[in-house]
Amino acid sequence: MELRTLQYFLTVAREENITRASEVLHITQPTLSRQMKQLEQELGTELFVRGRNFALTEAGMLLRRRAEEVVDMMYKIESEIETAGEVGGVISIGSGALKSSQFLPDVMSAFQKLHPKVRFEIYSNSSQYIKERMDRGLLDFGIMLEPIDIEQYEYIRLEQKERWGLLMRRGHPLAEQESVTCADLLSVPLITPARLYVQKEISNWLGADINKLNVLATVNMMTHAAMFINSGAACGLTIEGAVDLFEDSKMVFKPLNPRLELTAVLAWNAFIPFRERRRNFWSILRSILKVNSKKQDSLKLSCFLFRIILFVGNFFQPRYVFAIYFIKNYAKSAYKKRTALNSTVR
What we know:
This protein is 47% helix and 18% strand. By secondary structure, it is an alpha/beta fold. Helix 8 links the parallel strand 8 and strand 9 (215-219). The radius of gyration is 25 Å and the shape is globular.
């Protein structure tokens, strides 16, 4: 299966018409039809429901998701090869609607002035989907709302707190209150986050299962709830950062009482070497952000130990495997001891 064939397939899937797709690709319709038929024969399944429009079958929808990932990855590889030896190419960042990510425009603008050949690719979605794209190597950095399982990544915890509250249409009975209580939530239909980790945090705040609430629907991004909130059909249980995406004149945000606040993390894959553009961008981020990293102290010590082990390792084989194994276990042990000590002090 050639990359070109996947690009043809994605064009047909987007246009939903073989004639329009052939015009976009600047090839003849019979050639494109033959390519799609050969692709179906190669995979042993039909990808399209042929008619006036070309609709995707279930297998076609699966291939589209995977093909998009493959094509994105190839573009990324080509960009990195073309800009090898210079600060250029694409830096991809995933982020949801968070107050923690509001530093990005200024940082990105300042960085591009220093390195005009760099451009940014922003992927907006919930933390769960951002993590999935990071797992596949499609994102360089991810800004994600906790709680989320990112133990396989390096990360820094951002200082900005993400405050939870209720987003409602102006004129709603609860809009006159300073804050919203547990009892208030029980009285209105709600749009809530779909993430299970976040639902557990809400349940802990409620002191009861989230199913006790009148949940009309769940969403992965609160922007999808706008039509429900505008119509008055429901209120959105969301973080304050998502409110910036809506028009203030139509909606109002009231914080929860008692307060519910979560933090966000900036994460990256430590097993993928930093190219020059990522390294420089990370240096700017680190100099701007005031952060609290759970691994900061242990990583500094680990770097010092790594230099010592490499020196001593000249007398051992294989020295690099030994060094990495020792550092990994020491860092993990140091973090557990520090956590236990902090718990004791508290």
